[in-house]
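Field guide to reading this record: the first block holds the primary sequence, the second block holds the structure written as C-alpha cells, and the final block holds curator observations. Each block starts with its own label. This record concerns Serine/threonine-protein kinase RsbT, catalogued under organism Mycolicibacterium pulveris.

BLOCK 1 — SEQUENCE
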Amino acid sequence: MTVAADFVVAIGDPDDIVAARQAGHELARKLGFSLTDVTMIATAISEIARNIISYTGRGEIRIGVQIRDGRQALVVHAEDNGPGIPDVERAMEDGYSTGRGLGLGLPGARRLMDRVHVESKPGKGTLIEMWKWVPDAPHRGSP
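BLOCK 2 — STRUCTURE
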C-alpha cells in the first residue's frame, strides 16, 4: 500500500492540536486501522500536542509510516526545545505532573499506542516517538 509522505504540523497554539489530531486520524484511516484504533491514535497525538503547548509553547509533530522492529508502523515524532523532563520514568506514571495538568498525557499516550519512547534532557527539550503497528489487512467498511 502506498501512502502519502509524512505529515508535519508545527505546534504553537491550541488550533495546532486539532490540526495534528486530524493529520493522524487521516493517515490512520488510509492505513486501514479500525475506527477504535484511529480514535486512540488521534487521542494520543492530542495529548502529546497539548503537552507541547502547556510546557514549551512551541514544537513540531511529524506523522508517517516507518519500519519499527521489522514491521510497518504509524509513527508519531513530537519534538520541542523546551525545558525538558527531569524524570522521564516518573513522568510516565499516572497523576505525576510538573505543571497544572492531571498527569495523564504521557501515561495516556503510552496506553493508547503500541510503543512510546521518550528522550529528554533538562534545558535541552524533549523527543517523543510513539507508534502503532499497521494492521495486516485493512478494515474495509470502516467509516
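BLOCK 3 — OBSERVATIONS
The mean pLDDT is 87.
The CA atoms of residues 118 and 128 lie 5 Å apart.
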